């Protein structure tokens, strides 16, 4: 029953994304509207993560299966893209490396920022304790 309620909630948000796509005249896919709406609902705690986590994990587990059909389609239509295969592979590898580099640098920056903030908080707490000790001694 839990999966049914979770999938219903995810489907409802996706349906609202479809409605937004229909109502807003922008060239944005309805799935993006749905994802942004779900993100907004999760960040504002209107929907708690526990309300969708189990089904979301299950759907992520199914994701590789969803690539079987397109992969078979690519294999069967090899003749139509064999002339541009090398540029496609080069572009795919370059963008993969670029994405990994940007993701890694962004993560490192966020970790450094978080570490710096934690050090500052600890230093402030230590100063407060030292001041308190000094006032207690007097």
UniProtKB/TrEMBL annotation:
Keywords: Cell membrane, Membrane, Transmembrane, Transmembrane helix
Topology of the protein relative to the lipid bilayer: Multi-pass membrane protein
Subcellular location(s) per record: Cell membrane
UniProt feature coiled coil, ranges: none
Keyword Transmembrane helix: yes
Gene Ontology CC entries for this record: plasma membrane
KW Cell membrane (keyword) present: yes
Superkingdom of the organism of origin: Bacteria
InterPro entries: LrgA/CidA (IPR005538)
Transmembrane region(s): 30-47, 59-78, 84-106
PANTHER family hit by this protein: HOLIN-LIKE PROTEIN CIDA, HOLIN-LIKE PROTEIN CIDA-RELATED
Protein name (record): CidA/LrgA family protein
Record organism: Hominenteromicrobium mulieris
